[in-house]
Amino acid sequence: MFKIDWLQSFVRVADTRSFSEAARRSGLTAMAISKHIARLESELGEPLFERSTRVVRLTEFGGLFLERAEHLLREQAALADWVHSRHEEPSGVLKVMGMESALLALVVPHVSAFHERYPRIELHIDSVNELVDPVTRPFDIAWGVGRYLGDLHPGLVRRRLMTTDYGVFASPDYLQRYGVPNHPGELVDSHHRVLPQLHDEPNNFLIINDTGITGGDFPVCYLDAPVKTSAGHLELCIQGMGLMNASSDLPDVRRAVAAGRIVPVLEEYWFRSMDIYIYTHQVRQRQPKVDAFLAFFQERIGVLGQPAVEPD
Predict the structure, then answer these.
(1) Looking at the DSSP assignment, which residues form a beta bridge with residue 307?
(2) Where in the chain is the domain with CATH 3.40.190.10?
(3) pTM above 0.90, yes or no
């Protein structure tokens, strides 16, 4: 099989009708150019040039081969430019997967700015409401709260995006109606309600940092759930429908607290410095589109909580 540099030497000799001039333009020796042509002719099984002491002419076969060689070199240059442009300007389809509530709060508000910075990246945002297998549901980027997804699929690469406090919120109307709990024990066998994720199993618990309320390793309190939904928890919490788990650094939660529409509850029993991760697949070569997404959201989302620049 002939090599690209053989073809390049052949085209230069054909253009200049001179081995020495082709060598000068290539920055090679005339001997090197001559060897390229000899190897190419040997590979092809036919002569490309008629040589004399005064002139170098293409053979009939050489003229036909020149057209194809020039076409191939143009395609090779275009391919090299395309690869270079992909590294210069990230492009392609980028599949982003995560829980609907997390995507709506953390990704969607920044999509316009991301597209403006990286117009050649086409985002495919896939919201899920239950834990999925990354093998059967492919993605480039997955969002996760805590280490669970990474522990379940250890082949994934985990990058800590930010840390945040994760706690409990309720509306003033709800607390006026049901009372303000001061200890997790007051939630047990009470009339308090929770707004859980629809696809959690079981799906009627409130996460609270006190294993003593259940006696188990998983710190939850089981409550009645008047509504089970995969999205809209903040709106339902504002309406007084129940207690809600949420990150205190989510923009919508911050605004609702600042406006007095919801208030923190049981702050002494919150999870402090809970990690939010971005997961990617292990690859041999870095992907510019993935790197662009990670850098952009490290910059955007990291300012919400305590940014964690270094990957785990």
Answers:
(1) 162
(2) 92-160+276-307, 165-272
(3) no
